[in-house]
Amino acid sequence: MSPSPHIIIVDDEAPAREMVGDYLKMHGFSVTLCDGGKSLRGVIETGVPDLVVLDLNMPEEDGLSIIRDLKSRTNVPVIMLTATASPIDRVVGLELGADDYIAKPCELRELMARIRSVPRPHAGQPDPGRHATPAEAQGDHPRRCGRKYPVVRSMVPLATLSSM
């Protein structure tokens, strides 16, 4: 029998973290609860999980910084579970490598379905197919509200979009 998939829940709000954790445990997952980036990094040092469910709005370190750091070291799938109303934060999170986004409050059955639909990488190793964008390679990171965001170049030429 294979071990239960290990999921880390990262949220600064203990009630939300515990509710999601209890639900996932009830459905057979091995769950670790973390209150922020520092505790997440401590857990990952002992072994890379199968998935991370991550809140974006946290006081010490925002979720976008955590995604950026996590994806630079592993290819662990990340689902953003957050109450942020900013479409730009959601889009940037997905562009940084998050695999999915769910708005809080969420239906826990939907979270379960999304967790089950995320492809699992091999042992949390960095994605060998991922290359730095020209902006990342040059350190071209614009700032918005004091945060650095990578410049993402569109893969679809604008002429193509205007002809659609």
Top keywords for this entry?
2 domains; Rossmann fold; 7 strands; five-stranded parallel beta sheet; disordered C terminus; two-stranded antiparallel ribbon; alpha/beta; 164 residues; globular; 7 helices
Q: How does the SSE layout of this entry go?
A:
Elements: E1 6-10, H1 14-26, E2 30-34, H2 37-46, E3 51-54, H3 63-73, E4 78-82, H4 87-96, E5 100-103, H5 108-117, H6 134-138, E6 143-144, E7 147-148, H7 158-162
Parallel strand pairs: 1-2, 1-3, 3-4, 4-5
Antiparallel strand pairs: 6-7
Helix pairs in contact: 3-4
Give the CATH class of the largest domain. Alpha Beta
Give the count of helical stretches.
Answer: 7
Which fold does the CATH topology of the largest domain refer to?
Answer: Rossmann fold
SSE-based structural type: alpha/beta
Tally of separate domains: 2
The helicity comes to 25-40%
Weakly predicted, low-confidence segments: 122-147, 151-164
> What summary fits the major beta sheet?
5 strands, parallel
| CATH-assigned homologous superfamily of the largest domain | Response regulator
Indicate the CATH architecture of the largest domain.
Answer: 3-Layer(aba) Sandwich
Strand portion: 15-25%
Number of strands: 7
* Strand line-up of the largest beta sheet: 2-1-3-4-5
N/C terminus separation: 51 Å
Mean pLDDT: 78
Encode the helix/strand succession as letters: EHEHEHEHEHHEEH
Radius of gyration: 16 Å
Shape: globular
